[in-house]
Amino acid sequence: MEPAFIAGLVAGAITGLLHTLMGIPPILAGILTQLSLYSINLKIIGKANQSINVNQTDLLVSLRWVKEFAFHNPIITVSVVLIVLIALLYWFFGTEMGCSVRATGINQNMSRAQGINTNFNKVLGIMLSNGLVALSGTFLAQYQGFADVKMGQGAIVIGLAAMIIGEALFSKIFKNFALRLLSVAFGSIIYYIVIQAVITVGFDANLLKLLSAVIVAIFLAIPYWKRKYAQRYVKKPKGEQKNA
Questions:
Q1: Which residue has the higher pLDDT, 13 or 228?
Q2: H/E element holding 143?
Q3: Tally of domains in the chain
């Protein structure tokens, strides 16, 4: 668990430094890091697919220990992990360093004007996000009982969809920062409900990637549509109407 989280932090640091020190665009920096990590992961596990169990390595999550509880109480298991993570993130982003990271993400220019080291905060934010991704990967691999170099492909689309859906649907409802973090989890639940509903009605499973892209595109467009609708149909003040 800890080595995986640390490895995620290191990967995030590499991505952040490629962007801040070398001037590489953030998306391209992430792609370069992802390409390099494919070879590194393949070298570590020795082959494309590797089974893992408690006889080989010390595992925190294994169906041998939590089989009955995990199978019969999956909501409780996921809820406990989710609450702990949200509590830790809420605490961190409430500290001075966490607030500076949030400020950098909201308005980089204003943060820089206030004396905040925005480059450092960019790297720190990417490190933290990559660490959490690596942590979730360890849970998934240990729960499934195997690791595959391609098991993370497409996860970025799911994560983006969860974030966009949660932001689009709950941004005006959830004002507290902890609830805003929780909205991402709700977004992922809604995403999978939509996917399962579409599969149930007979949608071709080979087109799920296309469906995911369409869902993300729609929810990305919702804020734009809202602003455009508000600007078009907002009522002008009485003074402006008389002058017109």
A1: 13
A2: helix 118-144
A3: 2
